Amino acid sequence: MDFEAIKKAAAGYEADMTKFLRELIAIPSESCEEEGVIKRTILEMERLGFDRAEIDPEGNALGWMGTGDKIIAFDGHIDTVGVGNRDNWEQDPYKGYETADVIYGRGGSDQEGGVVSAVYGAKIMKDLGLIPEGYKILVTATVQEEDCDGLCWQYIHNEDGITPEFVVSTEPTDGGIYRGHRGRMEIRVDVKGVSCHGSAPERGDNAIYKMADIVQEIRALNENDDADETEIKGLVKMLNPKYNPEHFEDAQFLGRGTCTVSEIFYTSPSRCAVADSCAVSVDRRMTAGETWDSCLEEIRALPSVKKYGDDVKVSMYMYDRPAWTGLKYQTECYFPTWINKESAPHVQALAEAHKALYGEKRIGHPDAMHLRERPLIDK
């Protein structure tokens, strides 16, 4: 493969890629409001001569190059989170401010820059005859990822009927090749109580007090060790072969799971009454060996949860926000851990390509290279 020709072709498109990225940044595109950037991406695909460019019913942009039966996909989500406090931004987040080194704005890194790279990468593959025989290239600009990781690919696989041989995610990796990622799930804990007048709280059953006990034990899950004498063993236990014999090595690579209470809700007749319900959201990050069921059961087994019995419900959130097209595609808020072995052929192929194009180490802006002194292959 002629890597110098690839670099020369990419350099030739630099001005076009910069213009495209700045125009994407300038279009606000929070989750479920991505119509403008999706349509702009389709226009770019058509301008570059993609064999087919289409929008599926969920609102994802699908661009095709080549005619083979097998598919290699390059994915990037086109939605962003909000901008928060505008006063904290050094420049307008929707301008696509540009210097000689940096393009600045919401979505420039996460992840519209990756989409631009994939779109032009496919164009270069076609121009240089790099699409393997029997394959076609699919570039997807996907929606709702910030709201619900993976929902877009559930839809593409289950409803569009597309099953690639391999997918390259263009999520920003700080210049590295990432072969694994912790999973995530969104858990809800509901507690029932009985309200009464605040002047005689002993007549009621305060749901907030019950939840306070549970919250402290959820905190203990995150902070405790896994010693034999520790009643509530911390999530660090999954790094220990005693508790995770089949997956502890992968868990040590990915890092331990975590949990934190991220939201709290309550109901009460008034500010002078005992609360009759309380609920919390728990953000749970999962390492190798942890599953949907194990994470729910872990909370159900907490002493306070067992103590309060049927007054406590532990469940997983469902996601059902409509896409920008109006489509509602409901799914569980569960996003599994994934990992590839470093010795896997596809991981080594990516490393060889990186080294042929850029050298042995991560690349980046010179002022930030001190942040990139980490292994090229990481997580």
List key phrases describing it.
alpha+beta, Aminopeptidase, Alpha-Beta Plaits, 10 helices, 18 strands, 31% helix, 22% strand
Explained architecture:
This protein is of the alpha+beta class and 379 residues long. Helix 2 runs antiparallel to helix 3. It has 2 domains: 170 residues, Zn peptidases (Aminopeptidase), CATH 3.40.630; 137 residues, Alpha-Beta Plaits (2-Layer Sandwich). It is built from 10 helices and 18 strands. It is 31% helix and 22% strand.
In short:
With 379 residues, the protein is of the alpha+beta class. It has helices at residues 3-12, 14-25, 35-47, 108-127, 151-158, 207-223, 248-254, 292-300, 303-308, 345-358, and strands at residues 52-55, 61-66, 70-77, 97-98, 103-104, 135-142, 166-169, 177-178, 180-181, 183-192, 258-267, 277-286, 312-316, 318-319, 331-332, 334-335, 338-339, 377-378. It has 2 domains: 3-172, Zn peptidases (Aminopeptidase); 183-319, Alpha-Beta Plaits (2-Layer Sandwich), CATH 3.30.70.360.
Sketch the topology as an H/E string, one letter per element.
HHHEEEEEHEHEEEEHHEEHHEEEEEHE
Provide the β-strand percentage band.
Answer: 15-25%
**For this structure, what is the CATH class of the largest domain?**
Alpha Beta
User: Which whole number gives the mean pLDDT?
Assistant: 96
CATH architecture level-2 label of the largest domain = 3-Layer(aba) Sandwich
The tally of helices reads 10
Number of strands: 18
Assembly of the depicted chains: single chain
Query: What do we call the CATH topology of the largest domain?
Result: Aminopeptidase
Biggest beta-sheet profile: 5 strands, mixed
Structural class assignment: alpha+beta
Radius of gyration: 24 Å
User: Low-confidence parts, pLDDT < 50 over ≥5 residues?
Assistant: none
Domain module count: 2
Question: How far is the first residue's CA from the last residue's CA?
Answer: 27 Å
Helix residue percentage: 25-40%
- Order of strands in the sheet with the most strands? 1-2-6-3-7
Overall shape: it is: globular
CATH superfamily of the largest domain: Zn peptidases
